[in-house]
Fold this sequence. Notes:
The complex is a heterodimer.
Chain A: E1 3-6, E2 9-12, H1 19-25, E3 49-52, E4 62-69, E5 74-81, E6 84-85, E7 96-98, H2 103-116, H3 134-143, E8 160-161, E9 166-168, H4 178-185, E10 192-195, E11 202-205, H5 217-222, E12 228-230, E13 243-248, E14 257-263, E15 268-274, H6 287-291, E16 305-306, E17 309-310, H7 313-323, E18 332-337, H8 342-355, E19 360-364, H9 384-390, E20 395-396, H10 397-405, E21 411-415, E22 430-435, H11 440-444, E23 447-450, E24 459-462, E25 468-471, H12 484-494, H13 504-515
Parallel strand pairs in A: 1-7, 18-19, 18-21, 19-20, 21-22, 22-23
Antiparallel strand pairs in A: 1-2, 3-6, 3-7, 4-5, 8-9, 9-12, 10-11, 13-14, 14-15, 16-17, 16-23, 24-25
Chain B: E1 20-24, E2 36-42, E3 45-52, H1 60-64, H2 73-77, H3 84-99, H4 105-133, H5 137-158, E4 167-168, E5 171-172, H6 180-203, H7 206-212, H8 220-225, H9 230-234, H10 242-245, H11 266-290, H12 309-314, H13 316-328, E6 335-342, E7 347-354, E8 362-366, H14 368-374, H15 376-380, H16 388-395
Antiparallel strand pairs in B: 1-2, 2-3, 4-5, 6-7, 7-8
Amino acid sequence: MPTFKLDGKTLPFEPGDTIIRAAWRQGIEIPHYCWHPGLSAPANCRMCLVDIQPKPGQRPLALDVLEWDAKAGEYLPRQKPKLQPACYVAAADGMEVLADTSEHVRRARHDVQEFLLLNHPVDCPICDQSGECKLQDYWLDYGQYQKRMRDEPVHKPKGVVFGPTIVYDAERCVMCTRCVRFMAEVAKDPVLDMRERGSLNEIIVAPGRRLDGHYTFMTEHVCPVGALTTKDFRFKARVWFLRTARAVCQGCATGCNAHLDYDPRSNRAYRYRPRDNEKVNKFWMCDEGMLSYKEAHDGRILEPKVRGVATSAGKALDEIKTVFAGVAPGSVAIVLSAEHSLEDNWALYEFGTVLLGSKNVYVTGRRDGYHDDILIHRDKNANSTGVQQIAPVAKPLRMLVDDVGASRVTHVIALGGAAPVDPEALGAATMVTIAAHEGPLSRLAVVLLPATSWAEHSGTYVNAKGMRQVSEKAIEPLGVSKPAWQSIAQVAAALGYEASWTKLHEIRARMTAVKGIPNTARPPAAVPAE
Amino acid sequence: MEPLDMELEEGELELPAEPMHLNMGPSHPAMHGTVRIVLELSGETMVKADVQIGYLHRGFEKMCERGTWAQVFPYVDRLNYVSPMLNNVGYALAVEKLCGLVVPDRCQWYRMALGELARISDHLTCDGAMAMELGAFTPFLWFVKAREMVWDILEEETGARLTHSFGRIGGMANPPTQDFKGLCRAALPKIVDLVEEGERMLLKNRIFIDRLENVGAISGADAVGLGWTGPCLRATGVAYDIRKAHPYLKYDEVDFDVPVGTKGDTLDRFLVRLGEIRQSKRIIEQSIDRMADDGPINCDAPSVILPEKTAVYTTIEATIQHFKLIMEGAKIPAGEVYSYTEGGNGELGYYLVSDGSGTPYRVRIRPPCFQITGGLSKLLEGRMLSDIVPTFGSLNMIGGECDH
Lengths: 530, 404
C-alpha cells in the first residue's frame, strides 16, 4: 500500500483517498467543518488547510504577503506557503504534509475560526448543539483569542421552520453545505440550497417545497454546529447530562447501528444518533428510525394483567397455573416474536419445545411497510432472521388463527404484542402474552406479563443481511417489567418446569451449543497460558 | 473491738493493680475534631495510648476526583480549615507545575502575603486553644482577637472569612483590593502586640510552664523518622522549612528566619509557633512592599483562565471559553506531579495524576497532620493522663487534614 507522511508520521492510504480521508481512516482528525466521510468535498470551510511540502527540486507554492514588522514599524514584503485543503488534495505516494506541526497551518486554523465566529450569536446557553459543537471544540483547540470586531454582528433569520421536523437558524450557520449535499447525494432529493453571498449567505428550501421525506433528521445530524435542530430534540435536554448506549435500531430489518442517548437521572431515552457502520447503515439513519427511540416509553406494558385487570406478578403466575392445569402439550402453541431479541425467543423456544414438549411453533411480528433502496427495509421487525435461525419450522401467525379455529390449539404462549394479521379469532384460545408494547396479542391475553424493551436490556438481533448485532442496555427497566427470558423462566417454574438458564450468558452459551449460533456477546477468548 | 485487719500484712491492703482502660474521645472537647485515644492506665500513668483517627472521613481524595480541576479548590479549603489559603495556593501550584505555568510576579507576592496571613491565623488558633485547654482563657481571647484581624483582611480580599476558595489555576479569583496593603500594615503591629501581651501573661506563669516544659518531648532523629515536618519538627532543633529548603513563589527573595527549639517538648512547639508569627509578619511586609499596584494577576492562558464576565455575556468567543472551562473543565496535560509547600503544620504535598481530561485522574494529598498524629502515642506513653491535653494541643492536629 502506498504511504505518505503527515507531521512526520507515515500513513498508508488507498489510491484515490484524499489526505483528510487517509488520516481519518487511521483515526487522526484534521479539523474540518464541511468535509464528511459520507459526502462529497466542496472544500469551502478552509479549516482543513495543510502545508504540502514541494517535491525535491520543485519550487514551493508560495504567496507574497505584506506582514507588519513591529521592529521596523512598517509592513514588509514576506513570503508564506500556499496552504491547500486536505479534503480535496489526493494523497500521493511519498507526499509530505504538515498539519499540527506547521506554524502557518495553526495560524490558518486560528484565522478561519475567527472569521467563522465573526457574526456568530452568543447562543451557547440556549443552543442544543452546545457541548458537541465543532465551533466550541476548535475555538479551544486552535483559537483561544478574544473578539476583535467591535461592530454589531450581521443578523440573519432565526427559527426558520424548514419542514415538519427541522428548524434552521441562519445566524449559527457556517455554510458548510453538508445538509445541502446530504439531501442531494444520499437522500436523492435536492430540496436544500444556498442563496446570497458573503455575510448574507443562508440555506433555503426550494421554493414551493418543505424539507420532508424519510431522511430529514440526517441534515441535523451532519450539521457541525447548531444551525439545524430537530423539533423533536429542541430544548429537551442538555447533551452533557446524557449518557449513551450502543444500540441497534428496532424500526426495521436493516438493523441500523445507533447511539441511544438517555438521561440516567430521569431514566428517559432522549434521542438516537447514527453510529457509523460501513457494512450496515454507513453514517445514516431514516427519520422513522431516529424517532423510534420513543418506543422505549410509548405504548409500553408496565404491569402484569389478568383479563385486562392489573395485578401482581405472583397472582398472574398463579392464574397461568390455573388456566394451564391438565392441558395436553399437543394443544399448546408457542408464538415467537420477530420483534424480540434472540435471547428472548430462544428462552420461549426452549421452554415450549423442550420443557412443554409442544410441536406447535409460530412466529409473529409487525406488518410489512414502506421501503426504499437507501436504508428502509420492508420487514419492520428487527429480528425476523434471528427467529428463522432458531426455529426454521415456525409457522406464520395466519396458520395459528386457522389452528385455533379448528380447535387443534387451545392454549397459546406468545411473545410480543404485535400481529401481522387480524388475530381476533385467537380470542377463542387461552392466551398468555409476554410483551413490551401494547398490540393485538396483548389485548387478547388472559394473562399479560410486562417485558423490558430493547432499551432496558442487552439483546442480540439478526438483521436482514444475517448480521448478528448486540444492542446494549441503556435505561433501567420501567415499571415492574423484566426481560422476557426471565419472565419465561418464571412461567416455566409456575407450570412445574425448571428452566436451564438464570443468566443471559447461559442462554447465549446454550444457543451456541444447540443451534451453533455464534455467541456475539462473548468476550474474546483468553490467550492460553504457556 | 479489735480492728479487722489486725492480722493482715500492709502489702495485702493494696487494691489489685490491673490496668484501667479509658476512652479519650472521639467526642471530647480536647480532641480537636474527632480523634479517639484508647488509654491503658496504671493509676494516672498512661501505659499505652492507642491513637485512632478516621472518625472524620469524607472520602476526600475521591471527592476531588469527580469534578473538574477547578472544582477541587473548595475541597482543599476543608483540609486544614484554619489556614485554607495555604491549601489553595499549594493546590494551584501543583496544577500549574503540571501545566508548566508560572503566575505573574504580582500574583506570587499576593499569594505569599495571603498565605502568611493564613499561617498567622493557624498558629494563633493552635497556641490560643492550647492555653485555653490548660485553663488560661484570657490569652485565648486575645489570640482570637488577633486572628479576627487576619480574618477581616481575608474577608475583605476574598469575601469569605474561613473557606475562601480563592485560588485559581494560573492565578487568583480576584486581584488585590486597593486597601489590601493598608489593611496589612495597620493590622500586623496590632497582631504582634496582642501576641506579646499573651506571651507576657503565659510565659511568666509557673503553672503554664510546668505543664509544658519537658512534656511530650521528642528527639530530632525520632521526629524525622516519623516523617514530621513543620513547627513540630523545628521545635526539636531541625531547621527544615520548605520555604527555605526548596523555595517556591518568591520565598528565596525575602528575608526571614526559621525559629527552632532545642528540646522538642511542648513548650518548644508553643514558642516556635509564636516565633513564626513574627517571621510571617516580616514576610508579609516585604511581600506587600514589593507587590506592584497594578498589572496582571492571572497567567495569559485562555485554556485554564476564565474570561471576563462582561465578555462572556457579549461575545461568542468568551462564551465558548467559559462554557468549555465550566462544563468540561480545563484540560490539564497528561502526566503526574508531586508539588509541596509549607502548610500551617508542615509539608503539604499534592500528588496529582492527569489523563489529559478536565477531571483529575488521581488526587493524593500528603497532609502534615497525618504523620504528626502518628507520633502522638510515642509522646504520651509513660506520661500522666493530664499531659494529653497540652501535648495533643501542641501538635495542632486538624481533623479535616487527617482525613484518611
